[in-house]
Write a structure and sequence with these properties.
The chain has helices at 20-31, 68-84, 109-117, 127-139, 180-193, 242-247, 318-329, 389-400, 427-437, 443-453, 457-461, 480-489, 495-501, 511-529, and strands at residues 5-16, 36-39, 55-56, 89-98, 150-153, 169-178, 197-199, 202-210, 213-220, 226-236, 258-269, 277-281, 287-293, 297-301, 305-306, 341-352, 366-371, 378-383, 473-475, 478-479. With 530 residues, the chain is α+β, with helices and mostly antiparallel strands. It has three domains: 11-48 and 181-256 and 363-403, FAD/NAD(P)-binding domain, CATH 3.50.50; 92-176 and 259-352, D-Amino Acid Oxidase, subunit A, domain 2 (D-Amino Acid Oxidase, Chain A, domain 2, 2-Layer Sandwich); 426-528, Helicase, Ruva Protein, domain 3, CATH 1.10.8.870. The strands form three sheets. Strands 3, 4, 5, 6, 11, 12, 13, 14, 15 and 16 form a ten-stranded mixed β-sheet that branches. Strands 1, 2, 7, 8, 9, 10, 17 and 18 form an eight-stranded mixed β-sheet that branches. A two-stranded antiparallel sheet has the order 19-20. Helix 1 packs parallel to helix 5 (180-193), helix 9 (427-437) crosses helix 10 and helix 12 packs across helix 14. The longest helix has 19 residues, at 511-529. The chain is globular and about 70 Å long. The chain starts with a strand and ends with a helix. Pfam families: DAO, DAO_C.
């Protein structure tokens, strides 16, 4: 029996894609008074936006490519975003070990310039050049909250303990951590609170111009029901699928293209005891990070490899695992092996195709193009990085503005996301307050809740006097009350949504516990979201 098709009211914007760019644009547009509908074919942040290195950073290595505008914008954004989401983002210190024998990628503008004026260096970087880059990194963005760079004697500093003895000097600088997939969900929630309609598990089948409107046919992947939405403007923020959407569902001619680059990460057992991160430079010119992760683990990544088809699942291959282990072992005193790996993940970054010779060299900047030939306009979003998502959304609104009369100008800077309405330095006070109000919480549990939900943690715990009042215990402090919140407020529909995107508790639950959660999600959880 064919699916019943219904038609929906006309909206201003129809956004395709529930990653960080799509949800960021939906939030900004809704806050300016536009009516917005967003469709995501899977879960929010299902692909690229849950598979990043989890950093709000300026991109120190992009200085090698003279991408000063991108770096400056990202550096400014670090502190803007930190103030808006102090629960899911926080400052971290990065240690960059230095050794005179280090060589860098040979085809960057910096390498080519250095090869001309200092050919005897043969690809090596003098210490003064590293320090100059870090000086620019400290000052390009008008840093106010984060501490600046300092030189570290690795022979005396705790950061030197886990490293090979040949590394005696390092530079320590600041960047920020972010819970990437939670960032996406909170943007979607805020967009919805401002009037947007957020549809997950909803595939766009076809979009066609009907005069001054777009007619967008969608299918609910859970029920098979089909609907037609009409909108004055279409926003293609499909991430890795932006190109396929252009040539398929939307069928718009454009010269712009997307370059898909796979970035893979490994998570190992904890490799060192302190709370700082490492920035490692390889003999092949690439860099990787080693970052304390979820208290008991270390995150190592990332790789850069071309990934031709977005429909092919992104997986961290055995070769990439070996590469990351070898890379890290070059720096750590003890070898990192595949036996240390507890989890891997991989995402596909949809970079703007600038014709670069390698995946590593491809620009991380974004490009926004409006096509209005033939009727209603469509905005296509190419590239971008998680640090600049809010600025990308503002830039998108500049492209959208000529077609609408909006109620307000730029507004998102400094406006907190759900749960982020507390001071940047207020996390410990929030944790202590939670422990006082709910004595059954231990420090680790309270910290996890605050780092995920901020001031909304109290709404989840409600009037509970004991842990038992929170309902079923799924393991690793995940309770029925918390899962119900994720279903009712944060669009979660499966155990994977809960364990790998709304949290990383998948690292801690057993297979049996995860299966029990999935049973609950498909029973009680399905009833809760209707």
């Amino acid at each position: 029996m064919p699916a019943i098709q219904t038609s929906e009211p006309v909206s201003d914007l129809f956004v395709i894609g529930g990653g960080i760019n799509g949800c960021g644009i939906a939030r900004d547009a809704s806050g300016r008074g536009l009516s917005v509908v967003l469709a995501e074919m899977d879960d929010l942040a299902q692909a690229t936006s849950s598979s990043s290195t989890k950093l709000f950073h300026g991109g120190l290595r992009y200085l090698e490519y003279f991408e000063f505008r991108l770096v400056r914008e990202a550096l400014i954004e670090r502190e803007t975003l930190l103030r808006a989401m102090p629960h899911i983002s926080w400052p971290m210190r990065f240690v960059l070990p230095y050794h005179p024998s280090m060589r860098f990628e040979s085809d960057t503008p910096t390498s080519k310039l250095l090869g001309t004026v200092m050919p005897w260096m043969k690809g090596r970087r003098p210490a003064w050049l590293i320090r100059l880059g870090l000086f620019m990194y400290d000052n390009l963005g008008g840093r106010k909250i984060l501490p600046g760079t300092r030189t570290v004697d690795l022979r005396a500093d705790p950061a030197g303990v886990p490293l090979n003895a040949e590394f005696e000097t390092a530079y320590e600088y600041s960047d920020c951590w972010v819970e990437d997939s939670r960032l996406v969900v909170l943007n979607a929630r805020d967009a919805e609170a401002r009037g947007a309609k957020i549809m997950t598990r909803t595939r766009v089948l076809h979009a066609a111009r009907e005069g001054d409107l777009w007619a967008v046919e969608v299918e609910d992947r859970e029920t098979g029901a089909r609907r037609t939405h009409r909108a004055k403007m279409l926003v293609n923020a499909g991430g890795p699928w932006v190109g396929k959407l252009l040539k398929g569902a939307i069928d718009v001619e454009t010269r712009e293209g997307v370059r898909l680059v796979r970035g893979s990460h490994i998570v190992t057992k904890r490799l060192y005891d302190h709370d700082k991160c490492y920035f490692f430079q390889g003999t092949d010119g690439r860099i990787i990070f080693a970052i304390p992760y979820e208290t008991d683990f270390t995150l190592i990544g990332t790789t850069d490899a071309d990934h031709p088809d977005p429909s092919t699942p992104a997986e961290c291959t055995p070769e990439e695992q070996e590469y990351l282990c070898r890379f890290a072992s070059r720096y750590f005193e003890r070898d990192v092996t595949r036996e240390d790996i507890v989890w891997t993940y991989s995402g596909v970054r949809p970079l703007y195709d600038d014709g670069a010779s390698s995946a590593t060299a491809a620009t991380r900047d974004y490009t926004l193009k409006v096509h209005a030939e033939g009727g209603a306009p469509v905005l296509n979003v190419f590239g971008g990085k998680i640090t600049t998502y809010r600025r990308l959304a503002e830039s998108a609104m500049e492209k959208i503005a000529p077609y609408f009369e909006t109620e307000r100008e730029r507004w998102t800077a400094g406006v907190p996301l759900p749960g982020g309405d507390f001071p940047v330095d207020g996390v410990e006070a929030l944790i202590e307050g939670l422990e006082t109000a709910y004595p059954f919480l231990d420090r680790r549990w309270a910290r996890r809740l605050v780092r995920a939900y901020g001031t909304e943690a109290r709404a989840i715990l409600g009037t509970a006097k004991t842990a038992q009042d929170l309902g079923r215990d799924f393991g690793a402090t995940l309770t029925e009350a918390e899962v119900a919140w994720l279903v009712e407020k944060e669009y979660a529909r499966s155990a994977d949504d809960v364990l790998w995107r709304r949290s990383k508790l998948g690292l801690r639950l057993t297979e049996d516990q995860a299966a029990a959660l999935e049973d609950w999600m498909q029973g009680e959880g399905a009833a809760r979201h209707g």
